[in-house]
Design goal:
The structure is a single chain. This protein is α/β, with parallel strands linked by helices. It has helices at about 5-25, 30-50, 85, 150-160, 170-180, 195-205, 235-245, and strands spanning about 55-60, 75-80, 95-100, 105-110, 120-125, 140-145, 165, 185, 210, 230-235. The strands form 2 sheets. Strands 1-2-3-4-5 form a 5-stranded mixed sheet, with helices on both faces. α1 packs antiparallel against α2 and α5 packs parallel to α6 (about 195-205). The radius of gyration is 17 Å and the shape is globular. Pfam families: Inositol_P (PF00459).
Length: about 250
């Protein structure tokens, strides 16, 4: 099975498992989030061990042994991105499955199981991007955290006359840009590699700009997995946004 197909299938099936856990009615709130994290993580790590036994692995929900640093190919997963939103039975949470090759996000799948019918977006940065979504006719739309919008994002929105769209998980926010529902996702409040690797792979594969907020590239499979900031946006906004926060 090709890597892209595997990433899509794992993200989709993990999302379905999470919906079943939630529908069981056995858990709620934080307990639901914890149960979802554990069940989805076990499914993903066992499936990757079966299908890609020679690759490295980094998961938010598994102990990091650093053995992954010996691999050029490393799967980086977040079984439930937006555990709080999942536990609250909201729709703005995601499942992230990504493959980093030589430190770069190469392949990614982001499932949004909470949306009607379930949605999955995926991409391979080595393939030509799909046709671009036409530019938004109106004020630029910035997706920001529901509870902790980044100061830089608020400042940029003020300078460019932007509209703020509060949303839950990083994956949900990034995919809003990919889907054409938003124009800019600027984050500076602290994240880890599993929060952004799959969204960055998908966004880059769709022709969007992806970088740190200082303009440097997003690098993965580092010894320190802390990767606190990112900018995902339509290409026409990248230069102006980076200049405003530079």
């Amino acid at each position: 099975m090709p890597d892209l197909e595997l990433a899509e299938r794992l993200a989709r099936e993990a999302g379905q498992i999470l919906l079943q856990v939630r529908a069981s009615g056995l858990f709620s709130g934080k307990a639901l989030g914890k149960a979802g994290d554990q069940v989805a993580n076990q499914f993903l790590i066992h499936a990757l061990a079966a299908h890609r036994p020679d690759d490295g692995l980094l998961s938010e929900e598994s102990c990091d042994t650093r053995e992954r640093l010996n691999h050029e190919r490393v799967w980086i997963i977040d079984p439930v991105d937006g555990t709080r939103e999942y536990g609250e039975c909201r729709s703005d949470w995601a499942v992230h499955v990504a493959l980093a090759v030589n430190g770069r996000a190469a392949i990614g799948a982001v499932a949004l199981p909470g949306l009607d019918g379930g949605v999955i977006l995926s991409g391979d940065v080595a393939l030509p991007p799909p046709a671009a979504i036409p530019p938004h006719d109106g004020a630029p739309r910035l997706v920001v955290s529901r509870s902790r919008p980044a100061a830089e994002a608020l400042a940029v929105a003020d300078r460019i006359g932007g509209i703020l769209l509060p949303m839950g998980s990083a994956g949900a926010k990034a995919m809003a840009v990919v889907r054409g529902e938003a124009d800019i996702y600027l984050h500076s409040g602290g994240q880890y590699e599993w929060d952004s690797c799959a969204p960055v792979a998908v966004a880059q594969a769709h022709g969007l700009h992806c970088s740190r907020i200082d303009g440097s590239p997003m690098l993965y499979n580092r010894e320190d997995t802390y990767l606190p900031d990112l900018l995902i946006c339509r290409p026409e906004w990248a230069e102006q946004v980076l200049a405003l926060i530079g």
